[in-house]
Amino acid sequence: MTLRTTDLGTGRQTLTTTAFGYGAMSLAGAYGPIDEPAALKLLQEIYDRGVTFIDTANIYGLGLSETILGRFLEGRRDDITLATKCGIEPKGEAGKRSVNGRPEHIQEQIDLSLQRLGTDYVDLYYLHRPDPDVPIEESVGALGELISAGKVRSIGLSEVTAQEIRRAHQTHPITAIQSEWSIFARDVEEYVIPTCAELGIGFVAFSPVARGLLTDRFDPEALGESDARHKFPWFAPENLGHNHQLANKARQMAADAGLPTPGLALAWLFTKAAGADLKLSIIPGTRYVQHLDELLTGLDGQLSVELVAALDALADEVSGDRSFSPAWVSGGREALLPRASGAHSM
């Protein structure tokens, strides 16, 4: 199976990859258990469907996701566009970690990631979060040095503001910006996406189905005790019931359009990106092949102007913010998350 591709970035820093990728946080059990044999089988199914863009990070399972990917990559490395990240301290639990954008930390973490991944380079290396105590120019300068060293082929940033993007891009060409973007999470449309389009920077959207809310089998009662979603306001007891019912509106629209809800969610994103003249790749994560196939239907979904407008309206009804801490995401630092309450530490 051959999937359509997209060009992230411009000029010498252009990275051509599939417009549909795989977010490998799920391999580390963030949304429920998956053992290594099942993870490797899932990766094979993903590969067989033509998905060759795989995104991970050093903190996913404190190296577990990278380690599993390293085993899968044996004999396939040249076929895969591989992205990983640094910049969040790889210790502690989600929601309580600190950031670290110091050059020496970046240089240390790339070597550890390459060792786990079993490769001598990654195609795209992100600063996972900007460090408020380190000028972004210093962090990006260190990332650029990794290109010169042959360890990295292009660089990106995750959850950065439009202003941070401009400062970073002046230091070294940025290939991709990664952030959460979905029917329910739209703050990046205000400043970040127009900036990416203007500068020719690609955009990589994570959590495109709102961490599972925009699927057809989401069960609010089935979240396990260790499920990472408990840390996010959308899934707090006071918000979850409302948001689940709001997602039912999207499910009905999907049914009327003849699409599974995840397919509708991805088709909406591609439609919005086309309207913004934005180069987009989407990296949903899943542990199930059936979910993967439902997501892939979004690559070919054709949405009417009326349907897009109806989906656009849902974001205003979401209860709670997309992050446990406004400072942790670009929209929070750009004062675009007005519903913030009960913020946790990073």
Automatic annotation (TrEMBL):
Pfam families: Aldo_ket_red
Domain of life: Bacteria
Domain NADP-dependent oxidoreductase per the UniProt entry, residue ranges: 21-315
UniProt keyword terms in alphabetical order: Oxidoreductase
InterPro entries membership: AKR, Aldo-Keto_reductase, NAD(P)_OxRdtase_dom_sf, NADP_OxRdtase_dom
GO cellular component: cytoplasm
MF GO annotations: oxidoreductase activity
SUPFAM superfamilies xref list: NAD(P)-linked oxidoreductase
Cited PANTHER family: AFLATOXIN B1 ALDEHYDE REDUCTASE, ALDO-KETO REDUCTASE YAKC [NADP(+)]
Name the UniProt record assigns to this protein: Aldo/keto reductase
